Amino acid sequence: MGILNIIRQKTDNQKKIFSLVMASLLTLIIVVVWFSFNEETKTQKIVKEEPSKLSSISPIDMIKDEFSKAFSDFNTKMAEIETVSTTSSSTESIIVDEVTSIVATSSLDNIEEENINEQVN
Length: 121
Prior knowledge:
Layout: H1 3-8, H2 12-48, H3 53-56, H4 59-120
């Protein structure tokens, strides 16, 4: 008889307990193997190489640094937008002044032409 036939003959509670024990045992084996390989590679890296800058920085510091970069970039972009808007508004006022002076000049030219025409007549 195989192990599956033996398991099939057990009660439901015994099957549940057996499956829980086997799943826990398999998980424990995986964790032990994982940590054993991980510790060996860490030891080899420490012996062969200096620790990198990333390993010395905590994750919270990295997150703070990234957010500060994002906010500074955002503030820079907002300053650029404000500069462009003030430049465009000053450009608009210059254009309005120029158009006003052109209109005033053309009005004066028309008045002068009328005065000259009246004097000639």
